[in-house]
Every structure is written in C-alpha cells, then in structure tokens.
Amino acid sequence: MERRRDTEIPLDTPADALVCGTILTQGPILRGEVSRRTGLSSAAVTRATRDLLDAGYLVELGPTGPRAGSGRPATLLDVRADREFFAGVTVATEELIGVVIDLKAGVRVTRHRPLLSREVDSVVGEIAGLVAELTREFPRSSGRMSRLGVTVSGDVDRSLGVAQYSPFLGWRNVPLAHLLENATGLITVLENNVRGLTIAEQWFGAGVGTSSFALVTIGAGIGSGLVVNGTVLTGAHGVAGEIGHISIDPLGPLCRCGCRGCVEAIASDQAIIDQIRSKTGISHLTGPDAIALAKSGDPAAQAVFTRAGQAIGLALAALANLIGPERIVISGEGLAALDLFEEEVHQSFAAQAFATAAQCEIVIRPLPFDQWARGAAVVAIHDLITPETKNRRTI
Ligand SMILES: [Zn+2]
C-alpha cells in the first residue's frame, strides 16, 4: 500500500517546533508568554505562529483583557484539536488496545482485540486490522490521519523503528515500524511502552510544566521513563530507565534477567505471588488471592508486600539520586495492592534519597490500561513535532 501524503505542518526550524510544542502542551497561551517560556524572540514566535495559523493548526481564541498600550489586544493561542488525528496501538499481555486521538490527545475512539499469537506476521496483521476498525468507527479521521504510534515492551530503537529485544513477544530485531507502514499506509513510529506513557504524561499529564520527571510503572514488570531537561532519555543502545533491574540484594532471588536481587525479582506481581506461594505452600494462589491473604492479616503474605514496598522505595531513591526529578509518578496495575506497601515505599525512599533529592514529589496516579494506547498515539504526535524517525525515512 502506498504511504499517504504527509501532513503539511509548517515546522521548518527547531524554533518552530519549540513554539508549536509549547502551545500544544501549555495552551491556551499568549504569544508573549510563549516567548518568555521558550526564550525565543517575539519575532520568532510571531513568524512560527503565523505559519501554524495559516495551516490551520492553531486558533486564536479572541482578545483577552485590556489592550496593552497602543498595541493590538492580546489573543490567546491554542492548538486546533481536530486539525489532525492519530492512531495508537499498544501490544499488551493478552490483547491489543487501539485508540484514535486528536491533536490535543483527546481520545475519540477505543477498541480492543485479543492477542491471538505473538508471531510477527500475525501481530502486524492484527494491528493493521485494528487500525482499519478504528478508522471505520471514527470516520472523521478520514483524510486527516497519516500517523500511527505503536508501543511494545522491551528494548526499542525508535529512530530505526526496530523492536530490538522484547522478551514478552520473543522478538529480536523486528523492523515493526516498516512492516506496519507497508500494512497500514500510515507513517509509523515505534516506541517502548513505558516511554510512550511517559511522553503522554510529559506533554499532557502529570509531567506538564516540569523539566525533569520520571514515570515508574509497577505490576507485571517494573520500569521507568525518564525526562531530563525536557528530553526523554532513550540511552545509547535503546535501554534507559530499567529500574526494575537495579539489584538491591546481591543474595536476593534470581531475576528473569539472570541477575540476583533485582527490584523486579522482589516486587513484580509474579515475584510477589511466587514468594507467597513458597512461604505458605498455597500452590494455586493468584494475584487477587495474594492481596486478599495479606489484607486478612496473614503475616507471611504481609511480609512479602512489605519487602516489595521497600524494594520499590529504594529504586525510587536511586532514580531520584541519579537524575533529580521534580516529580516521580507511580502508575501501573501493581497499584491494586498499593495500600499494602505504600507506607514502606515512602519510608525507604525517604531513608535512601540523598539530601535535596528527597524533596522530589512522589505522585500516585492510576492510569487505566487504555492510557497505554493513548501513550502510543501521543508518540505519533511527538514524532510529528519533534521527529526522530527522519533518519529511518531517508535510508
Ligand atoms: Zn533483573
């Protein structure tokens, strides 16, 4: 299938992208405020906003307040949400979740499909089918949607569009973005799933207004996305923020990564279940059983959750000591058991965070799993405004 025509967003210079990104994430906003927050001259801001207004990406919301001197009345600028739409799909443990969002990351439609197979061809076919279904369900996107964001777990090189290593999917070096571009006709950007959620929080969630923040997800795995000075860290080899594999106990349990005492080997959902099973001898214990047992007062189960909370707190402290974020957001399905270990998380974080790193705000933020698909779609917006896939497209 031929790739559809690219959008015509007029972003010719880094300054244009900075202006557009600022209005997108912090609008409605006055031109003068854009200039102040970006450090760009008012002439540069005026030039960028004029082109974006002409192309229909921005709207003026009308005069606000009194005229400043003899100049024009100040008008607020905002992004026109329905100027362009974006598809997003995340590959979750048992299903594919797809959304269409508008330019302000508002979700317009959501659809789920079971993940029937982890074979590459099957996953590509199912994602393409899901995107077609989303398009049918939301016909307004017709002619105004040219980008797809996809997220998977594991080591992803976004600039190449390659899933380098995904233990869950059993993939190595799968050029998923390229395969999906051929299957859907949409410009496709591939990203790690935690980083996708991090970018969504950075631009449209709890990270707005911070220059450095971290998103930590707890549950089946324990991972983090890191934003330092406004940039999402990707690492030289596609790996960054793997706080689940910080070892906090060299004599601790064996992790699936092969090392001992990783945070994930102590505090992931499965690690918690395994430890309680071995301590209680209840071989068919499930995750909800584990939570119920601890809540009923079983000391062995409670001790396992306590240790998990301590491990997570130490990981957060390591993260705060290394990058000094203003805020750490904790999310993920593991929050279901939060009241069993939240106190330990805060205590061990406070005990280990160095000096002013302890001032970092810890925010608990439940995000329904559909938000991971929104995160994938936000990566497509991110790619439109701050493209990292140019290298791949010119190959
Ligand atoms: Zn590990």
Q: Could you name the key traits of this structure?
A:
disordered C terminus; disordered N terminus; five-stranded mixed β-sheet; binds zinc ion; 395 residues; alpha/beta; 39% helix; 21% strand
Which secondary structure elements does this structure contain, and how are they paired or packed?
Layout: H1 14-26, E1 29-30, H2 31-38, H3 42-54, E2 58-63, E3 75-79, E4 85-91, E5 95-102, E6 107-114, H4 120-137, E7 145-152, E8 155-157, E9 162-166, E10 171-174, H5 176-184, E11 187-192, H6 193-204, E12 213-217, E13 223-228, E14 231-232, H7 263-267, H8 269-280, H9 287-295, H10 299-323, E15 327-331, H11 342-352, E16 361-364, H12 370-385, H13 390-394
Parallel strand pairs: 4-7, 7-11, 12-15, 15-16
Antiparallel strand pairs: 1-3, 2-3, 4-5, 5-6, 8-9, 9-10, 12-13, 13-14
The chain binds zinc ion (ZN).
Question: Which percent bin holds the helix content?
Answer: 25-40%
Taking the alpha carbons of the first and last residues, their distance comes to 19 Å
Main sheet overview:
5 strands, mixed
**Arrangement of strands in the largest sheet:** 6-5-4-7-11
Mean pLDDT: 90
Oligomer: single chain
The total of beta strands comes to 16
